[in-house]
Amino acid sequence: MSLLPEGYARIDELQKSTANGKNVLVAMKFGEDTKPLREAIRTGICNAGYIAIFIDEVQHNDFITPELLKHIKNSKFVVVDLTHQNNGAYFEEGYAMGLGKPVIQLCRTGVNLHFDAAQKNTIMWDTESDIPQHLKNRIIATID
Questions:
Q1: Which residues pair with 78 in a beta bridge?
Q2: Mean pLDDT over all residues of the chain?
């Protein structure tokens, strides 16, 4: 018995969709200065009917990178804020894109995104209060 290309395609499709559920990994800079940003993103995701996963809130006994990659793989999509040009956020976005996951980018107005990321449609925000509704709208329009 052998697996045909169509079978591999179906396995790939199932892996993407069973990593579904309602979990959404959020990639961003973590710190005291980003707490309002974190909560605005969480609100937008929750208002769209999903669960925001922040890796620093996850209880685990593993090394952080495998745990993070597992959560990206098991997320329906990923939200990335690139305001602080955090290398980890860029890494996590690239990994998610490599898995074929939808990625929603956010960035504060006035921040110059890296050339590669600047080509992607990005939700630009002036204040954190702009984020929840814009993020909810984007999720509903592109994910649901």
A1: 25, 103
A2: 91
The 3-state DSSP class for residue 97 equals helix
Q: Is the pLDDT of residue 113 over 80?
A: yes
Q: What span, in angstroms and rounded, lies between the C-alpha atoms of 139 and 42?
A: 13
Helices marked H in the chain — which ranges?
5-18, 35-47, 64-73, 87-98, 115-118, 131-142
Interatomic CA distance for residues 11 and 30, integer angstroms: 35
- Secondary structure letter of residue 125 according to DSSP: E
Task: Assign residue 13 the CATH number of its domain.
Answer: 3.40.50.450
The residue range of the domain holding 12 is 5-142
Question: How does residue 19 score in pLDDT terms, banded at 50, 70 and 90?
Answer: very low
3-class DSSP state of 104: strand
DSSP code, position 88? H
How many distinct structural domains can be found in the chain? Answer: 1
Beta bridge partners, 132, equal none
DSSP state, residue 31: S
